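Hi F.,

I've been meaning to write this up properly since the lab meeting, where we talked about keeping a consistent format for the predictions we share between groups. The idea is simple: the sequence comes first, exactly as it goes in, then the structure tokens exactly as they come out, then a line or two of notes. No screenshots and no reformatting. I'm using this chain as the first example so we have something concrete to point to.
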Amino acid sequence: MKRCSRLDAHYVSMTERHTLDISWGTIGKIALATLSLYLLFLLKDIVIWTIFGAVIAVMFDPLIDVPHRLKIPRVIGAVVTYVFVFGLAGLFLYNLAPFFASEIQRFSQLLPHYLETLAPVLSGLGVEMFSDVQGFINVVAGNVSEAGKGLFNAVATLFGGLFAAVFIVSV
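Output, unedited:
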């Protein structure tokens, strides 16, 4: 009688055929899930704006109910509520703008001092980007000029945002 060694057992296991049995139903489910995820990816902007609109509608519903109880049509109450709330938010941001402008101006005046203070520490760590102020300013200027080239994209984004705002208000 012949004894099986480990090598023989390994050889036998390598010659066995393993089959993977997948039904057509499973393949169909995988294809349907993949197609659904792809469509969701294509429609992600619409889905996000719809969810955002629904959240805003739910948040403002109690405020819109007040004029509705006073026999004011719901659409007019919704428009007045949205204008009032977003007007207050705009007024708040408008009043904060001078504060932010002065802080940005102050930061830009103090930036060379900060960079001169940080340069020895960062160069000790091997970071040479901030070794001189002019190099940093050149990097920032290059980034700003690249952003300026995207003016058309900014205008398109603005009008897309206006369209989204109208869509959200109409939801």
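Notes:
The first helix runs from residue 6 to 15.
The chain is about 85% helix and 0% strand.

If this format works for you, I'll send the rest the same way.

G.
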